[in-house]
Amino acid sequence: MRVVVADDTMLTREGVVRLLGDAGIEVVGQVGDGQALIEKVARTRPDVAIVDIRMPPTHTDEGLVAAQRIREEQPAIGILVLSQYIEPSYALRLLEEHPERAGYLLKERIFDVAVLVDALRRIDEGETVVDPTIVARLLGRNRRQDPLAALTAREREVLALVAEGLSNRAIAARLFVTERTVEAHIGQCFLKLGLRDDPTAHRRVLAVLAFLRA
């Protein structure tokens, strides 16, 4: 896997680069702002770009804007955006238009190399990965019109773990059930959310989007 890292804090950027190198992932570029990211991605064509949301000059959403432009121009390149803060709206903003091959993690997660590498691999395989803290925040908020209302408590729990990017096997281990049981719950989620089997759509990603919008 080939990766570009974009973060304006040099120590953070170099720390991520070192972790990735130790994990056997090739870093083909590292930059400190959104424009440099766009240019580096155009030259190197990585598999995934790791992007801090807040970068120069205003330190608001420059990284996210750059990430969205990359997805529009080169949708085959995966995007993992990082944030120091819990901002579910940014996660939804990234995923709504280009949900596949995208992820959102809190910065504190990335120094657990197993979490970082797992997220990158899932994104590279076309999955969506959302930080579990954001998933928990979304689960806890009040909803006036809840598209997930038809789901049972267990189905919601399974869908939340899908949103975190877990495989069926990992979900089964987390919940102490069989993979077949997980498959059944996910099938019910698809059915109740009206997600028909369509070779042109990724139902797991669409289910995550439904969860984020709820």
Tell me what the structure shows:
- This protein has helices at residues 10-22, 34-44, 62-73, 88-97, 113-124, 132-140, 153-163, 168-175, 179-192, 203-213; strands at residues 2-6, 26-31, 48-52, 78-83, 102-106, 128-130.
- Strand 4, helix 4 and strand 5 form a beta-alpha-beta unit.
- The chain has two domains: 2-130, Rossmann fold; 142-213, Winged helix-like DNA-binding domain superfamily/Winged helix DNA-binding domain (Arc Repressor Mutant, subunit A), CATH 1.10.10.10.
- The radius of gyration is 17 Å and the shape is globular.
- With 214 residues, it is an alpha/beta fold.
Strand count, sense and barrel status of the largest sheet are: 6 strands, parallel
CATH class of the largest domain: Alpha Beta
From the structure provided, what is the oligomeric state, counting identical versus distinct chains?
Answer: single chain
Order of helices and strands: EHEHEHEHEHEHHHHH
The rounded distance between the terminal residues' Cα atoms is 34 Å
Helix content: 40-55%
Which structural class matches the secondary elements?
alpha/beta
Question: What labels would you give this structure?
Answer:
6-stranded parallel β-sheet, 10 helices, Arc Repressor Mutant, subunit A, alpha/beta, Rossmann fold
Summarize the structure.
This protein is an alpha/beta fold. It contains ten helices and six strands, in the order βαβαβαβαβαβααααα.
What's the layout of helices and strands?
Elements: E1 2-6, H1 10-22, E2 26-31, H2 34-44, E3 48-52, H3 62-73, E4 78-83, H4 88-97, E5 102-106, H5 113-124, E6 128-130, H6 132-140, H7 153-163, H8 168-175, H9 179-192, H10 203-213
Parallel strand pairs: 1-2, 1-3, 3-4, 4-5, 5-6
Helix pairs in contact: 2-3, 7-9, 7-10, 8-9
